[in-house]
Amino acid sequence: MGAQAPGLASPLRSIQKPPSQSAVSAPRCRSQPRTVLRQQYSSSIPLTAASAVLTRSSPSHPSGRGGCRDAVVAASSAAASFDASADELDSLPSIAAADAIETGEAHGNATFTQAVLNVINIVTGVGLLSVPFALRRAGWAGLGILWLMGFVMNYTGKALGECHKVVTKKRQREGSNGTALVGYEDIGAEAFGAPGRAVVATSMYIELMGTCALLFILEGDNLFQLLGPRFAPNSATYMLLAAMVMIPTVWLPDLKTLSGLGMVGVAATLTVTAAVAYTLISGSFPVGAVTSAANWTSMPLVFGILAFVYSGHGVFPSVRASMQQPEDFPKVLNVAYATVAGLCTFIGATGYYMYGTAAKDLITFNLPAGLLATLCASVILVNPIAKLAITMDPVGVAANTWAASAIQGVPAGVRRFVVRTLLACACLAAARYVPFLAYFMSLIGSFLTIAVSVVLPISLHLKIFQGKLSKQRLAWNWLVIAIGVACALSGTTASVKALLASTASA
Q1: Phi then psi for 109, rounded to 5 degrees?
Q2: Are 492 and 447 in contact (CB under 8 A)?
Q3: How many angstroms separate the CA atoms of 401 and 49, rounded?
Q4: 13-58 tens-digit pLDDT
Q5: Does the residue 28 lie in any domain?
Q6: Within a domain: residue 22?
Q7: Which end of the chain has fewer CB atoms surrounding its CB within 10 Å, N or C?
């Protein structure tokens, strides 16, 4: 991308144009209860949507055998549901209008499979393991919310992809930065000018940098939970040791390379899923769990928490720009979201069925002690390592663009290395020294994550496709915005209460 595009696009090594296109010109409080920290972490992190690790408590006895079969049926119908959505989107007048700007589109070198792995790595991870806890709060009705939010997030991702396509082709047609890749904030600028760019960039960068800081916290806490004080006295020291492995991942050259980390993260998630399935099949869980159809009093909080399982839209323009065939991006989202929805449904329904009201913050904490539980705890360590680089990528691209214009005479490779290392170290320092960082970021994340993943994509879509949308599509867009606002308000309210309570007790 070089220094031409301030935005989200991946720093791909080679950007190719179709042959037919002509050339165009204070320390973190260690006494925080881990349960509270988990709840705040799970409602603020778009990429992991789970928690910093908590102290174990003994499991209670589960009950009810109904939900697992429904979960498997729901998971098997995921692809058909999302494919129907894609066909409907592709047939709408707005898409035909977008295709009128057909001058060819610059593309990257990532394959369809690599793009799918990147999206799955973005929107799933440890957050998947907290779905049984969410169902504990919502009851079986939470599965309906899980699928509703999956559909909404899939739609908003496609809407953002449509905007990315139109803005990219428009800039190439007009000859302005024809080789530059279009990022999320560039779409904001196209829709609403400089204010649009500022709102999108501020919301996204704060969210992503906060997420990176919390990934360091999560890794340190997970290591301390697994290894105890035998190698380091506390989770903060483990966090510093983990940073020696995590920070080098931000030096990888592009999203095609990062897809390798994505595969590792997906493999870790599948390992835990297999462990949960084995526990169910072998009957190695207490019988008699207490479950409920719906818990209406805590439903608004769960509505917000489950939305974060699917978020990560700030990186989607980078993923689309990195693809060899960007027009396949809706299909990438279909496959990725169907996979994530199926896994979340299975883990959520199985965990809630086995443990009910005793479901812990992470389902792995409910598994019987022994080799299986240790294996699951170990593979969970992979997720923060796999996610750090891809989470920081949009911020790194923007910072590198600024550095290229502000600092002359520095080789591009050296500049990129220094910029990304400094950003990673800043996140590490925030994780280590900012008081109540997790609570503070949950407050910001509850509002900004929904804004970045739901409200802003649809707002940009409404503006860019103004006058070209059918009445049905227009009504659906406004309904999605209303859902996003409801999630943001409920999550923000809960985060404010937790932050005030933690501050008062410190």
Answers
A1: -125, 10
A2: yes
A3: 29
A4: 333 434 433 333 333 333 343 333 333 333 333 333 333 323 333 3
A5: no
A6: no
A7: C
First to last CA, the chain: 46
Strand-pairing partners, residue 16, are 107
The amino acid present at 324, given as its one-letter code, is: Q
Residue 154 maps to which CATH number? 1.20.1740.10
Domain residues for 335?
44-505
Amino acid at the residue 435: P
113/345 Cα distance (integer angstroms) = 23
Cβ atoms 153, 307 nearer than 8 A: yes
Residue 196 corresponds to which tokens in the numbers above?
């649009």
pTM summary value = 0.69
- Domain assignment present for residue 461? The answer is yes
Across the chain, how many H-helices and E-strands are there?
A: 19, 0
What residue ranges of the chain have pLDDT lower than 50?
Answer: 1-103, 178-179
For residue 344, CA distances in Å to 228, 310, 412, 462 come to 29, 10, 41, 31
User: How does pLDDT run across 248-263, given as a tens digit for each residue?
Assistant: 989 987 656 666 666 7
Residue with tokens 């593979």: 379
CA 270/CA 284 separation, integer angstroms? 19
Instruction: Tell me if residue 107 falls in helix, strand or coil.
Output: strand
**Tokens encoding 451:** 């804004």
Q: Which residues of 120-134 are buried (b: 16+ CB within 10 A; e: fewer)?
A: bbbbbbbbbbbbbbb
Q: What angle do CA 249, 444, 223 make, to 5 degrees?
A: 40
Tokens of residue 119, six digits:
């999206």
Helix (H, G, I), strand (E, B), or coil: what is residue 409? Answer: coil
Quote the number of domains for the chain: 1
Residues 6+ apart with CB under 8 A from 432: 27, 28, 216, 236, 239, 240
Q: Which residues of 302-315 are buried (b: 16+ CB within 10 A; e: fewer)?
A: bbbbbbbbbbbbbb
Residue 117 included in any domain? yes
C-beta separation of 279 from 459 below 8 A: no
Nearest to 209 by CA among 428, 436, 478: 428
**Do the beta carbons of residue 68 and residue 353 sit within 8 Å?**
yes
Residue 62 φ then ψ, to 5°: -90, 180
Spatial contact of 204 and 188, defined as CB atoms under 8 Å apart = no
